[in-house]
Amino acid sequence: MRKLLTLCLLSLAILLMAAPPALAGPPVQTGEAYVVQPGDTLFAIASRFGVTAADLAAANDLGNLDLIFVGQRLVIPGSGLLIEPAIVTESDEEEDAPPPALPPKVYVVQPGDTLFTIASRFGLTLTDVVVANGIRNPDYVYVGQKLVIPPPKAWAAEVSHPAPFAAIELSPEPVLQGQTLVVRVTLSEPATLSGEFDGRPLFFTGDDNGGWTLVGIHALQEVDIYSLALRARLKDGTESATAVNVVVGPGPYATENIQVSPGRENLLDPELIQAEQERMVDLWNQFSPRPLWEGTFAPPIASSRITSPFGTRRSYNNGPVDGFHTGTDFGAGTDTPIYAPAAGRVVLAEELPVRGKAVLIDHGTGVFSGYWHQSDMAVRVGQAVQPGDLIGYVGDTGLVTGAHLHWEMRVGSFAVDPMQWIETAMP
Ligand SMILES: [Zn+2]
Known about the structure:
It is built from 7 helices and 27 strands. The chain is α+β, with helices and mostly antiparallel strands.
């Protein structure tokens, strides 16, 4: 039984890395009613269906937002909302102009919809919609789900960017919540690149014919189409600007409740968590400007038993769902060795209240890997590590329910799925 469970978790993780992931999650009633599950809050249910808690409360005549009970049937209000970014309109002036590139849209699933009927309505095939949303089971759609509607093939003309932008590649496309997005820009002449995504600045690493940057997509980032702004400053000081659409698709994340062992609840003191978090943010904000790693990351531990995948929405001791699992947990016995998955420099090696005995490695360009809850650490701050170097041992220090390795990856201070880094060579 235990073996089977391990296998299931593992295959989930493998799917997460390789194939477009499925919409896993707690049992969700398709149709108009949702049955409240243990650990649910009105807010969490509302966000899962893409409606507000107030709308959900109003649709169900709930006077008290906190008062819902397991087994209660809630009507999910159909919003009918169709978010349409500014559509490029056809120009009559130039007959020979290429067809304009239509931007994708976000569609909110309505009662009675199937993926097939949605695809037909937008002049698409079922496959187009499945691929654009990373859907594994096309029968599993639910009312309120947000789907990315790509432009029909006939309209998806190549977007041309002003010089010196020769080509802009995004990978993966669409990018899912909690993944790392690679943006690669090819330039026709040397220039300094900069840009923004969702209000944050992007820092480019130059190469012979352009540059690249990595964008960490928040695991709870709203499914939507975002504009990523790009600028190129030429040697003579002139600047050229353009933008590309970034389609953020739904991640395959379930929801779970964590019971914290008696005697360790005091570790949940918000001030303690906050102080430690601020310390980490300081570390994430000071990074080596050049990449120190090369290619794919190696698994940091011989164990392939993933006890908790990245991204799972979490509540603690049946509290509200207000966070997500920021790393991948590997089950392994106390004192199992942990190895550096890639080259970098150790910037933290000490015992912290929540993370326990913790090691943080700076891999350059804002990429960090963290190893929490160790029984002992084998590296010092400032030490350079190579792939395969021993960094510490599995333990149960800090806020844990048992011995395991919590392996975390940060890109631009955002927690991203570490398994993508084992599968894919970045950039
Ligand atoms: Zn963990």
